[in-house]
Design brief:
heterodimer, A: mainly alpha, flat, B: alpha/beta, 5-stranded mixed β-sheet, 4-stranded mixed β-sheet, 19 helices, 12% strand
C-alpha cells in the first residue's frame, strides 16, 4: 500500500466521526452564535436581526450578572474543595491509611459520584428541609439553633446550599483521580526525602504536588468548566429561586428560552457560556503544551 | 485543545442551539386567516398525532383508554398519543412549534400560554363547532369554554375543571371554636384563634413560587376592577398601576403573617400538604383536582377523610374588584391550525368530551369535567359535586396569574412574591418590577 492511499484510507476511517462532530457539535455552536444576533421565539420562528441588542440586554440584566457571579462562586468553591481538599484527601489515603481500609474508603468516597444528580438533588432537598431536615436537626442537637434556617428557601443561603451538595458529590471523584496520579509517583522519591529528614507535610509539597501537576491541571479545567456548565443541581433543588437568587447561567438560559420565550437572548447567554468554557480550554491547551516542552 | 473540554464547551452552546436546528425545520409561521375544514368527516380514516402533559401514571392510563376506545370504534383511524410530564411539556411543545412540527391535537393551559399559539396562527378557530349555540358547545360549561376564547373566538376544548379553595380540617376548627370565615378580616381572626389553640392555621409550601401566585391570582381579582384587570393581563396593554395590585400583595402578606408558616419558600407544596394530611395544619389552599388526596381512596387517613371541607379564600370587606370570581381554569386541547386532519381531530375531541367519557374521567381520576352533568353522587364524592356547583356559581374564572399573563410579567410576579415572602421586598417594590416587565412585554408584542 502506498503512503498516499494509506493517508486516504485513514481519512476514510475518521470521516464518520468528523461528520458527526460537524453536524452535532460545530454546526450548533456556530448557528447558536449567529442566532444570538437575532430576536426570535418558538411562536414566531422568523428571526429578526437585532445586532448586539441581546448582548446589550445581557449587560444591563442584573440577574445575568448575578448568575455569572453564582457560577464564579461555584468555580472558586469547587477549586478549593475538589482540587485542594481532594488532593490532600488522596495523599492522606495513600500515605497513612492501611491497604484494606484504603480500598473501602476510596469506594465510600466515590459512591456519591456514581449517583444520579437528580436523585442526589432530591435527597439534599430533604436534608435541607426546614421542618424535618437533618441539617437543621443536627445543628439543633449541638445547640446551634440560631443557625437553623430554610437553607434552600432563603436568598442568601440557597446557592451556597447547592454548591455544598455539589462538593459532597464530586470530592470523591476528583480524589480518586489524584489517587491514580499519586500511585504513579515512584516510591524512591519519597524514600529519598525521608532520608533527608523531610516529614509528611514537606514530602507532600516537594514530591506529591509537583508530581501530580498534569492531573491537577486536568482537574482544575474539569472543575471550572463544570462550574460554568452547572444546571441540573440548581434546577432540581431551587429552579433558580427564591427571587432568582440562585440562578446560574445554565438555568437563566433555560428560563429565557423555555419560560420567557426569548430564544435570541437565551442564545446570547449560551454564547457567553461557550466563550467562558472555550477560554478555559484554550488556557489548558497552552499550559499543557508549554509543560510538555519544558519536560 | 483538550477534547473533553472542547466537547463540554460545545455541548453548552448546543443546548440552546437545539432550537437553532429546530428553527430550520420548516417555513415561517403565518397567522393564516383561513381556517381548516372542521365539518364532520364523511369517512373517518387517517393518522392523528396528539401530545399531552399527562405522563403521570395516575392520569396517563385514562387518556390511553379513551384513545383506544376511539380507535376501536373507528378502525381506520390511528392515533399516535405521546404523553410527557408537566415541565418537559413546556420545552417539547416549544421545540415542536419552532420546527413547524406541531401535532394535530396538543395540550394547553388557559391564558397567555394558549394565546401565544393563537396569535402565531398555530391554533385552529373552533368557533363554528364549539361556540355556545352549537350542539357540542352547549354541552360544556360556558365559563370553561370562555377561558379559551381569544378576540371573541373559541380556540380550545376545555377538558377538565379546576378551582382553588381553602381546604380545612373541620375537627381542628371545632376544637379551636373557629367558624368558617366569611371575610378576609374574619380569616385573620380565625387564624389568630387557631394559633392561640396551638394549631398551625395554613400550611404554605412555596418552594417553586406558584403556590403563592395562586393567592395573588384570587386577591388581584378581588381588589382590581375586572376591566382594568383584563387590560393589564393582556400583554399589549398591561400597565399594572392600579393601587389594587399593591393592596392584593399587602393582603397576602397579612394572611401569611397571621396564618402562614415560617420558611414557606423552603418548603414544597407537597410537604405542606403532608402537614395538612397529618392534622398538623388546619387549612391549605389547594386546587380541586387535588381533593382526591383527602379521600381514603387517595391515601388519606380515615380521620382526615371524614373531617375536611372547603371554602373560597374570603374577599376583604372593602373589595374593589369582582368578589364572585374564582381562581382556577380548565386545561384544554388545541387543534393545529395547519393540520390536514383537523376535522378528524375535532371528531376525536367530541368523542373525548362525551357524557360517558367525562363521567368515567371523574370516576377514575377524580377530575371534574366541563361536560355538564358529568359528576354525580355515584361517580364522585360529596365535596367534588359541591365544587361543581360552586364553580357554576362563580361569575368567572380568575385564570392562574402565571399562565394568564405574559411570561415576562409572570416571571416578575413569581420572583417578586418569593422575595416578599422572604422579607426582602415590599409590595411596592414587587409591583415596580412587575410594571417594568409589563412595559417590556408591551414592547415585545406591539
Amino acid at each position: 500500500m502506498t503512503a498516499t492511499s494509506r493517508r486516504w484510507l485513514s481519512w476514510a476511517w475518521v470521516l464518520p466521526a468528523v461528520v458527526l462532530l460537524l453536524i452535532f457539535v460545530y454546526y450548533p455552536v456556530v448557528e447558536n452564535i449567529r442566532l444570538s444576533f437575532f430576536s426570535w421565539n418558538a411562536f414566531s420562528p422568523t428571526p429578526t436581526f437585532v445586532g448586539l441588542a441581546n448582548y446589550r440586554e445581557a449587560a444591563q440584566d442584573d440577574i445575568f450578572w448575578l448568575a455569572l457571579l453564582n457560577n464564579t462562586a461555584y468555580a472558586i468553591t469547587s477549586l478549593v474543595f475538589q482540587v485542594g481538599f481532594s488532593l490532600a484527601l488522596a495523599a492522606v489515603l495513600e500515605e497513612f491509611v492501611g491497604q484494606r481500609l484504603r480500598g473501602v474508603l476510596r469506594t465510600i468516597y466515590f459512591i456519591p459520584a456514581a449517583m444520579s444528580i437528580t436523585v442526589v438533588g432530591i435527597l439534599f432537598s430533604f436534608l435541607y428541609n426546614p421542618q424535618f431536615g437533618l441539617v437543621n436537626e443536627a445543628l439543633s442537637a449541638v445547640g446551634l439553633d440560631s443557625l437553623t434556617r430554610a437553607w434552600l428557601g432563603e436568598e442568601n443561603t440557597a446557592i451556597w446550599s447547592v454548591i455544598a451538595m455539589s462538593q459532597w458529590q464530586s470530592i470523591g471523584y476528583t480524589a480518586l483521580l489524584f489517587v491514580v496520579a499519586i500511585q504513579r509517583i515512584p516510591r524512591e522519591y519519597y524514600e529519598a526525602v525521608h532520608v533527608d529528614g523531610a516529614g509528611p507535610l514537606r514530602s507532600f509539597f516537594t514530591i506529591t504536588v509537583p508530581m501530580v501537576r498534569e492531573m491537577t491541571t486536568l482537574v482544575v479545567i474539569l472543575t471550572i468548566s463544570g462550574a460554568f456548565l452547572v444546571f441540573n443541581e440548581v434546577m432540581v433543588m431551587t429552579a433558580g429561586g427564591p427571587n432568582n437568587s440562585s440562578q446560574v447561567l445554565g438555568t437563566w438560559l433555560y428560563r429565557q428560552a423555555f419560560f420567557e420565550d426569548d430564544m435570541g437572548y437565551a442564545a446570547t447567554v449560551a454564547t457567553v457560556i461557550f466563550v467562558i468554557t472555550f477560554a478555559i480550554a484554550a488556557v489548558q491547551l497552552t499550559v499543557t503544551r508549554r509543560r510538555r516542552f519544558e519536560a | 485543545m483538550n477534547r473533553s473540554s472542547l466537547r463540554t464547551s460545545a455541548t453548552a452552546a448546543a443546548a440552546a442551539a437545539v432550537l437553532a436546528l429546530s428553527a430550520c425545520g420548516g417555513d415561517s409561521a403565518t397567522g393564516s386567516s383561513e381556517g381548516p375544514d372542521l365539518s364532520a368527516p364523511a369517512e373517518k380514516s387517517g393518522t392523528l398525532t396528539m401530545v399531552t402533559k399527562y405522563a403521570d401514571p395516575q392520569y396517563a392510563p385514562y387518556f390511553e383508554q379513551v384513545v383506544a376506545a376511539y380507535e376501536d370504534a373507528n378502525p381506520e383511524v390511528d392515533i399516535e398519543l405521546e404523553q410527557v410530564g408537566d415541565q418537559p411539556y413546556k420545552d417539547k411543545i416549544r421545540v415542536l412549534s419552532a420546527s413547524q412540527d406541531l401535532p394535530d391535537i396538543y395540550f394547553s393551559w388557559a391564558g397567555d400560554f394558549a394565546n401565544k399559539f393563537i396569535r402565531a396562527g398555530l391554533a385552529a378557530d373552533l368557533t363554528e363547532v364549539l361556540g355556545p349555540d352549537t350542539e357540542w358547545g352547549s354541552t360544556l360549561t360556558p365559563a370553561a369554554v370562555k377561558t379559551f376564547e381569544y378576540e371573541g373566538k373559541s380556540y380550545g376544548v376545555p377538558i377538565n375543571l379546576d378551582a382553588k379553595y381553602l381546604a380545612y380540617n373541620t375537627k381542628l376548627f371545632d376544637s379551636a371554636g373557629v367558624q368558617v370565615p366569611g371575610t378576609q378580616e374574619e380569616l385573620l381572626t380565625a387564624c389568630d384563634e387557631l394559633k392561640g389553640a396551638g394549631i398551625q392555621p395554613i400550611a404554605l409550601g412555596n418552594q417553586f413560587g406558584w403556590p403563592a401566585i395562586h393567592y395573588i391570582t384570587q386577591l388581584n381579582a378581588y381588589n382590581v376592577d375586572p376591566e382594568t384587570l383584563a387590560q393589564d393581563y393582556a400583554p399589549s396593554t398591561g400597565e399594572f398601576t392600579d393601587p389594587g395590585y399593591v393592596a392584593a400583595l399587602q393582603q397576602f402578606a397579612d394572611i401569611n403573617e397571621h396564618c402562614g408558616n415560617a420558611d414557606a419558600n423552603g418548603l414544597a407544596h407537597e410537604v405542606a400538604q403532608a402537614n395538612f394530611l397529618a392534622g398538623d395544619a388546619a387549612m391549605q389552599y389547594v386546587e380541586s383536582v387535588e381533593f382526591g388526596v383527602f379521600t381514603e381512596a387517595g391515601g388519606a387517613s380515615p380521620e382526615i377523610a371524614s373531617s375536611w371541607d372547603f371554602f373560597r379564600l374570603p374577599a376583604p370587606a372593602d373589595a374593589q374588584g369582582d368578589t364572585e370570581a374564582l381562581t382556577g381554569a380548565p386545561d384544554g386541547f388545541l387543534v393545529n391550525a395547519k393540520s390536514e386532519n383537523a376535522a378528524l381531530a375535532v371528531d376525536f375531541l367530541k368523542f373525548f368530551s362525551s357524557q360517558e367519557n367525562a363521567a368515567t374521567m371523574t370516576e377514575e381520576i377524580g377530575w371534574l369535567s366541563p361536560v355538564e352533568g358529568s359528576a354525580t353522587e355515584q361517580n364522585s364524592f360529596p365535596q367534588l359535586t359541591r365544587t361543581l356547583n360552586d364553580i357554576g356559581e362563580a361569575s368567572q374564572f380568575a385564570v392562574w396569574l402565571d399562565t394568564v399573563t405574559h411570561a415576562e410579567v409572570a416571571s416578575a410576579y413569581l420572583a417578586g412574591v418569593e422575595g416578599m415572602l422572604g422579607g426582602n421586598l415590599t409590595p411596592e417594590q414587587v409591583m415596580e418590577s412587575v410594571q417594568e416587565a409589563a412595559a417590556k412585554a408591551q414592547q415585545e408584542v406591539n
